[in-house]
Amino acid sequence: EGCCRTQLGMFLSAVSGSRSSKTFKPKKNIPEGSHQYELLKHAEATLGSGNLRQAVMLPEGEDLNEWIAVNTVDFFNQINMLYGTITEFCTEASCPLMSAGPRYEYHWADGTNIKKPIKCSAPKYIDYLMTWVQDQLDDETLFPSKIGVPFPKNFMSVAKTILKRLFRVYAHIYHQHFDSVMRLQEEAHLNTSFKHFIFFVQEFNLIDRRELAPLQELIEKLGSKDR
């Protein structure tokens, strides 16, 4: 686990440093001075200790919805940055389908604009997906940023759908673009980010095991290293 601290330090500095200009979509900022901002700072501090299992746990006395909201925004920003670094390799020609290896293919539907799932290229799918997530995160009725504004009753199901879909971007990057990630020397960032994501969704049971199947071997490997 000792290596985790330096990897995570590199990752966090990359998120806030020069590479942030390469985000795929505009970064979603949590307003400074808000309670959610304090929670984000707490998350970053505990991540720095290198113990990811501990870092994902709900801090004492905190609201579960708020903790999930802050981390969902953070994962959106992380994936946004990671995918942003490889967009030039993920094209209509290289990735005509949104897949995670030969056995898993994803078709896009958001239930409002596109009701019937459509086949599309990976860059198109990820554009739809990240735009959709952004719209959810920007919706104050779903993700309230003001203190005292309650989370809606359907918050948990929305958060689960967001995280399930964000997982697909990790799965696509690992299966189709890991060689590019290695060439860019981003694999430590990707692995640390994904491990943090997986420990988080496992801690609160947010993604169905079947959905995680495309990266099951990797998930088991990350989990066994941590025991």
Automatic annotation (TrEMBL):
GO molecular function list: kinase activity
Is Ribonucleoprotein given among the entry's keywords?
Answer: no
Q: Which domain of life is it from?
A: Eukaryota
Pfam families hit by this protein: Mob1_phocein
Keyword set includes Lyase: no
Q: Where does Zn(2+) bind?
A: 90, 95, 172, 177
Query: Which keywords has UniProt assigned to this entry?
Result: Kinase, Metal-binding, Transferase, Zinc
Q: Which PANTHER family match?
A: MPS ONE BINDER KINASE ACTIVATOR-LIKE MOB
This protein's name: MOB1A kinase
